[in-house]
Amino acid sequence: MSLILAPTLIVSVLAGCSASSSSTTAATTTAGTTAATTTAAATEAVTTPAETTAEAGTSAEAGTSANQAYDGTVYKIACDAAYAPFSIQLEAGTTAPGKVVTTANDMGDYYGIDVELLDAIAEYEGFQYELTPMDFSAIIPALISGTIDGSIAGMNITDERKEKVDFSDGYYASGSALVVNKDNTDISSFEDLNGKVAACKEGTTGMTWSQDNADKYGFTVTVYPDSASMMLAVANGQADFLIEDYPVISYQINIGEQADLKVAIDAIGEVPQNGFAVAKGKNATLLAMFNEGLAAIRENGTYDKIIAEFISD
Predict the structure, then answer these.
(1) Calpha distance 63→48 (Å, rounded)
(2) Among 309, 290, 312, 276, which residue's Cα sits nearest to residue 120?
(3) What CA–CA distance (Å, rounded) separates 181 from 215?
(4) I need a labelling partner for 186 at 20 to 30 A (CA). Which of 40, 138, 198, 227 fits?
(5) Distance in angstroms (rounded) separating the CA atoms of residues 161 and 134
(6) CA-closest candidate to residue 295, choices 50, 5, 61
(7) Is it true that 29-173+273-310 and 176-268 share their CATH fold?
(8) Nearest to 96, CA basis, from 113, 79, 81
(9) Is 312 or 307 the better-scoring residue by pLDDT?
(10) For residue range 247-288, what is the model confidence (pLDDT) as tens digits?
């Protein structure tokens, strides 16, 4: 049974790039898409493919301009299956520091920046959605195929991705960092990367940067399907460094989840914005509601409260 939660503020987080470098090897295959259930914010009952129930909660904001075209669709919206602090899966018997988006399968419950921002926007705009955690590299293909309607997954807004998807206004500026084993004393600049092995997460801007700069700095690239396996490779010495979004790796090091790693270079290239994505030319109403809701929660202070739960200045 799926659960469509009432519109409460819930804390519960591209394959657009190709592996073009001859020095790139695939570490593992990408896991399949896994669906999960989530939240809602509609005032009327809606017929959905799955049986749904609603828990008591605050009523949705009514009469916003963007939601006038909303037809009651329960949108399937993807988050990254493992991307703390943007999407964090709870283990059985544990509790989140805030509220949680409940899922209906063995993926477990989710919280984090992306998931909570989405829920706050859904509450304000009055639309329903179904959270679908999946591997990051599977998200853009799923958008294009229509398997999902939207995505909030810490996805950097890039020109390459704009060829395949339409982005919202930026909702978080997320730069990248170069990370090494905590005992590594060999890498402190790009010139130190000669002869080294980079670990990268498939489909990310970190992978693109690594492949674009491998020949320039003389390192090789190994691609992993998710952040956890990429970080493990550096922690256990299979790779010398990785490229990851700074807020992600900083958060995980600070809470002790990646105590074997440290940031060697904290600014890699530009600092792009993360964006909510839909397939190009599709789901214009959903995109408009996201943008309007994002502006509203920035204005009323909800946005700052969500960010402050996970990232300190």
Answers:
(1) 23
(2) 290
(3) 23
(4) 227
(5) 18
(6) 61
(7) yes
(8) 113
(9) 307
(10) 888 888 888 889 999 999 988 877 889 999 999 999 999 999
Report the residue count for the chain. Answer: 313
Task: Report domain 176-268's class.
Answer: alpha beta
Evaluate if residue 94 carries a pLDDT over 80.
Answer: no
Check if the beta carbon of residue 77 is closer than 8 Å to that of residue 149: yes
Which tokens is 114 given?
């992306």
Contacts of 68 (CB under 8 A, 6+ apart): none
User: Does the pTM exceed 0.85?
Assistant: no
DSSP string, 175-197: -EEEEEETT--S-SSGGGGTT-E
Q: 220: exposed, middle or buried (C-beta count within 10 Å: 0-12, 13-18, 19+)?
A: middle
Q: What is the DSSP letter of 45?
A: -
Look at residues 207, 228, 290 and name the one whose alpha carbon lies nearest to residue 84.
228
| Identity of the amino acid at 181 | N
The amino acid present at 277, given as its one-letter code, is A
CA distance 139 to 118: 16
DSSP for 83-137, written as a single string: BTTTBEEPPTT---SS--B--SSTT--EESHHHHHHHHHHHHHT-EEEEEEE-GG
For 80, 150, 163, 217, 258, the CA distances from 101, given in Å and listed in that order, are: 14, 17, 31, 43, 25
- Mean local confidence (pLDDT), 59-82: 80
Q: Are 215 and 27 in contact (CB under 8 A)?
A: no
Q: What is the pLDDT of residue 239?
A: 98
Taking the C-alpha atoms of residue 187 and residue 202, their distance in angstroms, rounded to an integer, is: 23
CATH for 29-173+273-310 is 3.40.190.10
Query: Hey, CA dihedral for 293, 295, 296, 302, is it positive or negative?
Result: positive
Sole residue written with tokens 């939240």: 39
Residue that is written with structure tokens 């964090």 in the block: 88
Strand, coil or helix: 53: coil
Domain residue spans in the chain? 29-173+273-310, 176-268
